[in-house]
Specification:
- By secondary structure, the protein is of the alpha+beta class.
- It has twelve helices and 54 strands.
- The strands form eleven sheets. The chain has an eight-stranded mixed β-sheet with strand order 2-3-1-45-46-47-51-52, with helices on both faces. Strands 16-20-19-18-40-7-17 form a seven-stranded antiparallel β-sheet, with no helix packed on it. Strands 23-27-26-25-28-22-24 form a seven-stranded antiparallel β-sheet, with no helix packed on it.
- Helix 1 packs antiparallel against helix 2, helix 2 packs parallel to helix 7 and helix 4 packs parallel to helix 5.
- The chain is elongated and about 140 Å long.
- This is Phage tail sheath subtilisin-like domain-containing protein.
């Protein structure tokens, strides 16, 4: 720091040697065959539930899940897991709504294996994300609009601006185009292309230019660039376009499309009213007819293929796929089979003259009138008992005139006839409530506007009209319901649902196909990276342009997942990936015992031990489930290292595989032993031999070894697990697989591993420091401070520090001038590890009383 002016200066300087932090010794690394999860990717898990979420539960092909269960059950807190099996992932193909099987995109299980074979994907339209409408106004009174300039009274002119092009629409179906000159609260001054007479209830609707690219919406929300915008007219027909931009322009929203539409868009239209009818189908075929639907409404009110009632009709089945009506039946997209269950049909609505099958015990006209007390005056009812017919006409509140045969005692049906004066009311049935202002087409020349609606009961309504038209001569009994309906604008998005074992597991909503959309289905964080079940791939570069016929409509399984047992090469690849992680201090490979070829098993065990020797880790090796003689032979032929220990026999535990047919399963011990290592390290320290410690999570041993058996196995460095009365099952051995007495014990090897890794991690600061006495002193003081803590904790032998450890560094002590010129800093550390009391001897003798 440069000092230029008087004052007080605060500086921070090093205060002494760098402390050495203890390295972790309790984290295990496990490689093996698993149900699911990433292959060849070291993944850290911190508990059994965490492991199951990532890798699934136990299975019959290997023992790694049970090993991890035993690790956490016995005190382990963290593990690195590497899945080795080269299994095949399940895939699904998602097709669009075209009648041919046009592929939209593919989905793949998040990890390979048969675990996903019970998973199904569903695609359904999501029409809840936004909506819009163009301006429209309802005429409030009769007016004659001349060809040229005129004013139109309306209930509200909201949404219109001067200069707008509009269409003036009559209830009879005729229309004229015009331009808005001025706008008042309850009137529009327009210049019309031709004269037209408008009545109350007629409509003025905004109109776009021909082949528009921009549409001005009087109201709109939730629309985003990249959305596929559906524009649905009053008759149910649709056109679509991809939104390029959405800009707020004062009270209105300007939506710009990526390409012009084929024709002008009008904000409203006069067409047969569309409603939704609910029913069920048996399913199982690619097509289904109206007759195959069991309706929840009276069949007399359900859609039929007549009078164009099914024009632009659509059916949504229980899977979410939308089937279009083709003139005789609904055709599922791509030829897929319709699933059984609910079907929702969007079709045109008809009203029907009320006819009812009844059982009415009455013999007076008053009884008939009381039964149908909602009848308007002038309504005629034709009653029949199947043979004789009587007509009863209401002439007053409680009076009627009869004609025909005498009134029968039992009526089998009643029909309400069309009246001679429509203004007095018509009794009809309708699947949905008719609305004031809608029209009924009684015949080709008689279209009447509804002025009043009274619900009688159920689906029975009394409709009144302003006209006194005589309807009695009309022979038919079912009539289209016609309405002015707004043109609707909505984004065509889709939902992707994941079902596992028949239960809904995930739902990804509001997805779009265009990459510019914020909910683009293949963007990271939308489905990919969020779903625990699937990842989705973008659409192919040569896919068809996005439109209504490329909206995903259904998903089919394309390839089942396949479990493939790992070979030695796969295990070795997993070991190579494990080199990337520094934290693990132990390595287990419980699936080594599944290899039937002893040479392959020895090769795998050798690879694990070589890895541990190279990366200063400790291998907990599972011995095969052999008797004592075969165990000695196997150990001598398979493994010899100071970085490994062998454990036997196998353990019995309650089966955790949900598909297991047996209650108990025999498993190798390495995971349970590694958990005991972790528990001992935490409670006593790494210097404590992990033996004479109880093993939890098991119910027994596959074999019972006696002290006589252990007399053979212990010198051969096979550590046994044994059951002791009143003390449970305990690890009863702590030897490494070496004949070197200096490295005989597990805790000695692990103590040195611990010290070496701690020093390596904590002395990185030395690199490129000046190779001088001051640096050497800092190194020595750091190491001595760390080793002194170990000695005081009982990890090192000796009655005083100089007996427990020695640290040497310096010129003439551990280095020559040539070493320094080569950039070497050589530090020598000697430790006196505490060794376990393996053989505890008490010598007894007689004591003389005189002694």
């Amino acid at each position: 720091m440069s000092y230029q002016s008087p004052g007080v200066y605060i500086e921070e300087v090093p205060s002494g040697p760098q402390p050495i932090a203890a390295a972790s010794t309790s984290v295990v690394a496990a490689i093996g065959s698993l149900c699911k999860g990433p292959v060849g990717v070291p993944t850290r898990v911190t508990g059994w539930a965490d492991f199951v979420r990532t890798f699934g539960t136990a299975h019959a092909r290997g023992f790694t899940p049970e090993a991890l269960y035993g690790f956490f059950e016995n005190g382990g807190t963290a593990a690195w897991v590497v899945r080795a099996d080269p299994s095949v992932a399940a895939t699904w193909k998602i097709y669009d709504s075209a009648t041919t099987a046009t592929l939209s995109f593919e989905a793949t299980a998040t990890s390979p294996g048969a675990w996903a074979n019970g998973v199904t994907l569903g695609v359904s339209p999501d029409l809840t994300g936004g909506a819009g409408a163009m301006a429209q106004a309802v005429v409030s009174g009769p007016v004659s609009v001349p060809s040229g300039t005129g004013s139109i009274p309306v209930y509200s002119s909201g949404g219109f601006l001067a200069g707008d092009t509009v269409t003036l629409m009559k209830g009879t179906g005729t229309s004229v185009n015009a331009t808005v000159n001025t706008v008042a609260a309850n009137s529009l001054n327009v210049t019309a292309d031709a004269s037209i007479g408008l009545a109350e209830g007629d409509v003025v609707a905004a109109r776009t230019a021909a082949a528009p690219t921009t549409i001005l919406l009087a109201s709109g929300s939730g629309l985003k660039p990249g959305d596929l915008l559906a524009i649905q007219s009053a008759d149910g027909s649709r056109v679509t376009g991809v939104i390029a931009a959405v800009v707020k322009q004062g009270p209105r929203t300007a939506v710009t499309l990526g390409a012009p539409l084929g024709s002008a868009v009008v904000g409203a239209g006069l067409a047969r009213r569309i409603a939704r009818f609910r029913g069920t189908i048996a399913g199982g075929a690619a097509t289904f007819t109206l007759g195959q639907i069991t309706w929840e409404v009276d069949p007399a009110l359900a859609p039929v293929n007549s009078e164009s009632q099914m024009a632009h009709a659509r059916a949504t089945v229980s899977s979410g796929a939308v089937a279009a009506f083709g003139g005789a039946h609904f055709a599922m997209p791509g030829g897929q089979n319709a699933p059984a269950g609910t079907v929702l049909v969007d079709a045109q609505v008809r009203v029907a003259v009320y006819t009812e099958a009844i059982d009415l015990a009455a013999d007076t006209v008053a009884d008939v009138l009381a039964r149908f007390d909602f009848l308007p005056v002038g309504t005629a009812i034709r009653l029949t008992d199947g043979t004789n017919t009587t007509t009863v006409t209401r002439t007053g509140e409680a009076t009627a005139a009869t004609s025909g045969a005498p009134l029968p005692q039992i009526f089998t049906s009643a029909s309400f006839l069309l009246p001679a004066n429509a203004s007095k009311g018509v009794v009809v049935r309708c699947a949905v409530p008719p609305r004031v202002g809608e029209f009924v087409d009684f015949d080709a020349t008689t279209r009447l506007r509804i002025t009043g609606v009274t619900k009688a009961n159920g689906t029975v309504y009394v409709l009144t009209f302003a006209e006194t038209t005589d309807l009695s001569a009309i022979a038919t009994s079912r009539f289209p319901l016609v309405a002015f309906s707004p043109t609707t604008f909505f984004p065509v998005r889709f939902n992707l649902t994941v079902t596992d074992g028949g239960a809904l597991a995930e739902s990804h909503t509001g997805l779009a196909l265009d990459p510019s959309h914020p909910r683009y289905f293949a963007r990271d964080g939308v489905v990919n990276g969020v779903s625990a079940y699937v990842t989705v791939a973008p659409r192919a570069a040569g896919a068809a342009a996005i439109g209504e016929t490329t909206t995903p409509a259904y998903a089919l399984s394309a390839q089942a997942g396949v479990d493939v047992a790992p070979a030695n090469a796969d295990f070795k690849k997993a070991l190579t990936k494990l080199e990337e992680q520094q934290e693990p201090s132990q390595v287990i490979c419980p699936d080594s015992v599944t290899l039937e070829d002893p040479l392959l098993q020895a090769d795998l065990v050798g690879a694990v031990v070589d890895h541990c020797e190279a990366f200063r880790r400790f291998a907990v090796v599972d011995a095969p489930d052999f008797d004592e003689t075969a165990l000695v032979t196997w150990r001598n032929q398979t493994v010899a290292s100071t970085y490994a220990a062998v454990y036997a026999p196998h353990l019995k535990m309650v089966a955790i595989d949900p598909d297991a047919t047996e209650r108990f399963r025999t498993v190798p011990p390495s995971g349970f032993v590694a958990g005991v290592f972790a528990r001992t390290d935490r409670e006593r320290g790494v210097a404590k031999a992990p033996a004479n410690e109880q093993v939890g999570g098991i119910v027994g041993l596959s074999r019972t070894f006696t002290p006589r058996h252990q007399d053979l196995l212990n010198p051969a460095a096979v550590n046994l697990l044994r059951a002791f009365p009143g003390r449970g099952i305990r690890i009863w051995g702590a030897r490494t697989t070496t004949d070197d007495a200096a490295w005989r014990y597990v805790n000695v090897r692990r103590l040195f591993n611990f010290v070496e890794r701690s020093v390596e991690n904590a002395t990185q600061w030395v690199v490129f420091e000046p190779n001088t006495a001051s640096t050497w002193i800092r190194i020595k003081v750091s190491l001595e401070g760390f080793l002194d803590q170990l000695w005081r904790a009982g990890a090192l032998a000796g009655g005083k520090p100089e007996e427990a450890y020695r640290v040497s560094v310096g010129l003439g002590e551990t280095m020559t001038a040539a070493d320094i010129n080569l950039g070497l800093v050589i530090t020598e550390v000697a430790l006196a590890p505490a060794k376990p009391a393996e053989f505890v001897i008490f010598r007894f003798s007689h004591k003389r009383q005189s002694e």
